[in-house]
Amino acid sequence: MEINIINIGMNHETAPVELRECLASKPDTMVSALATMRDLPYIREGFFLSTCNRVEALAIADDCDEAKKSLVALMSGIGSISKENLISSLYTHEGMAAVEHIFRVASSLDSMVVGEPQILGQIKDAYAEASRQKISGVILNRLMHRAFHAAKRVRTETGISEAAVSISYAAVELAKKIFHELVEKKVLLIGAGEMAELSARHLLSQGVRSMTVANRTLERAVQLAGLFSASPVSFDEITPQLNDVDIVVTSTASQGYVITLEQVKGCLRKRRNRPLFFIDIAVPRDVQPEVNQLDNVYVYDIDDLKGIIQLNMDQRRQEAVKAERIVQEEVLKFEKWLKTLAAVPTIVSLREKAESIVQAEMKKSSSALGNLTNHQRETLEIMTRSIAEKLLSDPISFLKKKAGRPTLNSYLDVTRRLFKLDKE
Questions:
Q1: Residue 310: pLDDT above 80?
Q2: Which of 12, 312, 413, 424 gives 20 to 30 Å between its CA and that of 285?
Q3: How many domains does the chain have?
Q4: DSSP assignment, residue 237?
Q5: Among all residues, which ones are annotated catalytic?
Q6: 321 part of a folded domain
Q7: How far is CA 157 from CA 152, 160, 330, in A?
């Protein structure tokens, strides 16, 4: 049976944040998508990734065209977006192009910030969920583990991660461009997840001394604040905090706006024309877009950071050339393995026949062998199996070497006839 590998997705380059957040806004998106993929008749194995910057569906399919239609319909349903509006923002890869794409994504060569480490962890989590949902199989398992291996090689054999910046780093660089010096500025972090923690580290490295952390769970706010000598506050205290702070960095997983137009308007008089900057690195966005229309208030969302992420670009390009070569090597290795699958049924049949012969001959000879001890019988079985495996070793190795060549089917047919692997 032909193996079709299909990838359909959107990322920060093909779709605006307004569209991406439609598919990333629900916490159970990945689970429900995998459940739907598992029930689709044309899909044998599947994987679904949903992050703030990309949504990807990867499938091993029986029918390529039908599978693509099903995956587009799946994304359309999840985001409540018409297919017409969705298709223009999607990319599609098939075969080895799909494999290369997922290897590049895992290696952070397709990220908004080349070399950022977060995407690999997100892919591993998505793959773990696919395994839990029992929609991963032999091909997807191999593909994802090779993707992880490619990413590890890129990280250890190139300097791409050292030269890269993260979204949180870019957010802090933006704050520096706005204020030049951050030492005397007051910062409010809303959210206490990984992005907030990274932002806090970068802010401190730039001299910020006054930092407040707000989180829906106060306990987590206290934990994060404790790491950085910051002050924890509850979500209910965000509004009075807006009276005093200069910069608000927000990165929650909230389904609605955390900062509203009315909320910010109410604090402007007390601020006495002091500028207030919001850096919103959440998807869905935390800050209501209309806030940006207020005087002396400035809102930057995750798409605005694209222009900031130009640091170390020359070095990243040089390292990316090495990384691309590593990815190509790993794609070729996976392709070679994939081609060996055509020989697998014959190889399995060979081994099964050898095992059945060993069992039959052991049973036939048991009376002639007399009363063997369990240890002696086990030793004899090991020896006979070893002989069978050695006899089959060269034929199996030969078939594997012919994988992907036009002559493979002829050799498989001859093998099946020589060893009488078929009933007729």
A1: no
A2: 312
A3: 3
A4: G
A5: 52
A6: no
A7: 8, 9, 14
